Structure formats: C-alpha cells, structure tokens
Amino acid sequence: MLEVEPFSVVLVADLAGVVVFAASGASAAVARRFDMFGVAVIGVVTALGGGATRDVLIGAVPPLLLSDWRYPLAAVLAAVFVFYFHPAFSRLFRAVLVLDAAGLALFTALGTQKGLAYGLSPWAACVVGVLSGVGGGMIRDLLTQEIPVILREDFYAVAALAGAVLAVVATPLDSSHGQWVSALGGGCVVFAVRLLAIKFRWSAPKPRI
User: For residue 22, how many other CB atoms are within 10 A of its CB?
Assistant: First the structure.
C-alpha cells in the first residue's frame, strides 16, 4: 500500500499536483472573469474534486479534502496567486501544459494504486485511477460552461487510462518494492503519452460532417 506520511516524498509530490491543477482551474475561472471567491472555488474543485470522488467511491472517508488541511490550503493559495498574477501566468501556457501532464500522471498513478490497496478489482482500480486524474478537470469545465476536455481533444483520458492499465498489470510483479515501480511506470506512461499528444496534436477520431 502507498501511504502518505507527514513530510514524505509522496506528500510533497501530491501537493505539487494539487498546486498545478488548482492553478489550471483558477486560470480558467479568471478567463471567465470570476471574482476571487469563484476563482478559489474552481481552483479547489479542479485540484481535489477527482480525488474526493474517488475516495467516496472506494470508502476512504472522509476524503483528503476534508481530513487534511494542507490539501485545500495548497489549492487556495495557488488559486489566489493566479488571481493576482494571471497576466504573467498566461504567458507560461506551454509550461502549464507540461505541469498539467505531470499532475495528471501523478494523480492517475496514485489513484490507481489506492484503488488496489482498498481491494478493488483491476478494472475498478483503473476506473478510479482515471477518475482521480481527470475528475477535477471535468468539474472545472462544467462549472465554467466548457465541454469537458476529455471528450474533445488531446488524448487526455486515453493517456490516463493507458497509465492506469500499466500500473495495474505491473503491480503483481512489483510486490517487493511496495508498488512504487508499477506506480512510477504507470505515471511515466501517462506523462509521455500526454506530451506526445500535445506535440503532435493527436486526437481521437471524430465523425465526418
């Protein structure tokens, strides 16, 4: 089981992912001209909405959103930072895409392993892993009246699914390392596929009109 201990590497990486996704959500809210409260709310639900939904589904309650103050605090601080410095932040669009890919990889891999740790079947663990990675973005898009990105472009959910499947398949071979290698491998697949999709503008087939 992957455990999150105080000041552990996992916690630091997890909070980094929270900051990245919160900044992404806050940027979308700023573009829609939300006020500061609205920007903070969108930042928090983008960063923590997917993980909270996963935790409720697998019975890991209360979710980290409610049980560990560091997670919502990190999300709020990131959102407020974007609110005040959004002109400079918007110029870092490519860097934000890379960071978003890293956050997607991290949340998908850790979400998949958490599902396995709570006794889910391999298929169900893949589902909650993907949900961990893309759920917050779906909530963000719905609240800002956008078509969710996973339904329209960039191999977003496909990248997450590929990494989740690899993490599940590799887990039985990785028992001696506490599932770290399988989680890392799955995360690397998500990250690589996402970056390649951005670079080469991959997308799933669309209907001809």
Answer: 33
**Residue 124 domain flag:** yes
SS3 of 46, please?
Answer: helix
Answer yes or no: are the C-beta atoms of 190 and 159 closer than 8 Å.
yes
For residue 64, is it within any domain? yes
Cβ-based burial of 111 (10 A; exposed 0-12, middle 13-18, buried ≥19): buried
Can you tell me the distance from the alpha carbon of 51 to that of 64, in angstroms, rounded to the nearest whole number?
8
Answer yes or no: is 188 within a domain: yes
What is the CA 201 to chain-centroid distance, rounded? Answer: 21
- Domain, as residue range, for 185: 9-200
| Terminal CA-CA length for the chain | 48
Could you tell me the pTM of the whole model?
A: 0.84
- pLDDT score, position 90: 67
- The number of distinct structural domains making up the chain is 1
Asked if residue 189 has pLDDT above 90, the reply is yes
Q: Is residue 97 domain-resident? A: yes
